[in-house]
Each structure stands twice: as structure tokens, then as C-alpha cells.
Amino acid sequence: MQKLDIPDRSRNRVLMVLAASLVILIAYWGLWFAARGVVASNDHPAYYEFENAFPLADAWVALCMVAAAIALLRKQPIALLWLLAGGGSAVYLFCLDALYDLEHGIWWRSGAGGVIELGINVITLLVGVGLLRWTWLRRGAFTPSANVTARTASGTDQEG
């Protein structure tokens, strides 16, 4: 089985981002279900219904992050799949959540809860885009045999 050829320092930074993201995600949902007032931006029933639609999608992002972390620790190329799935899912969730928050004035008219919501949205976007960027820039390290095959098929590795 092929192993990833990514420097440990770079890989460890991504592992730290994944771990911190998981801690924030778990803390948020723990507070949402145990002490909602700490993280809720307002108390409208529609807002609660909207937020209650997120646990499954956030669980998917968490699964992607855990799978990516395990694959990165083992230096397995399958990390490519999990990092792209997790990063893309995070960006999608940001878009969904941010649009609702903008349409309903959550960030600007909800006091400290709105600031918390804005912070969560910014972190979600930065983590998602960051994972996608980091992974894309190192995609060759995840699929070394595919690079050789692609170069050979295009004629760039053939002798003149």
C-alpha cells in the first residue's frame, strides 16, 4: 500500500485543525441540547427548527474529519477523499447557515448569540476552504501512481 509523502509538520497542522474543529462541533451541539441559551442566537421557533436540521449534516462533516484524521495519521491516500468531502461539506454548510443568518439578521440583531453565530460561520468557512486548498495543493502526494500514469498517457514521460 502506498503511503503519503507529505511532510509531518504540514500534516500535523491539518490534524490539529481537524481536532480543534471536532472539539468545537461537539461542544456546540452539547451546549445546544444541554444549555441552548448559551449558543442560541434567538428564541424564535423558526430559528430552533432551522438549527435542529443541522445535527445530521454536522455529523457527516465530523465523520469526514475523523476519517481524514485517521487516514492522515496512517499516511493513507484515502485521506484525499475524506479531506475533500469534509472541506466541501463545511463550505456548503457555511453557505446554508450564512444565508439564513443574513436573511433573518441573526448576526447583527441577536447580541452575543449573533456574535457566536458569526464566529461559528467564519470558522466553518475558513476550515472548509482551508482543507480544500491544502488538499488540492498536495493532491499529487495523495495519488503518486496516478501522476505517473497521467504523465505517461500525455506523452510527457516518453522518450523522444
Segments where pLDDT lies below 50 for 5+ residues?
Answer: 148-153
| Mean residue pLDDT | 89
Strand content: under 5%
User: Can you give the helix content as a percent range?
Assistant: over 70%
Q: Based on the structure, what is the oligomeric state of the protein chains?
A: single chain
Shape: elongated
Structural class: mainly alpha
**Sheet having the most strands:** none
Radius of gyration: 19 Å
Note the gap between the termini: 32 Å
With helices defined by DSSP (H or I, 4 residues minimum), what is the helix count? 9
Q: What is the number of strand segments?
A: 0
**What letter string, H or E per element, gives the SSE order?**
HHHHHHHHH
Task: Write up this protein.
The chain is mainly α. Helix content is 80%, strand content 0%. The chain is built from nine helices and no strands. It is elongated, with a radius of gyration of 19 Å. Mean pLDDT is 89; it is low at 148-153.
Name its key features:
mainly alpha, 160 residues
SSE inventory with pairings:
Layout: H1 8-34, H2 36-39, H3 45-51, H4 55-73, H5 79-103, H6 106-109, H7 111-137, H8 139-142, H9 144-154
Helix pairs in contact: 1-4, 1-7, 4-5, 5-7
Quick structural summary:
Helices cover 80% and strands 0% of the residues. It is mainly α and 160 residues long.
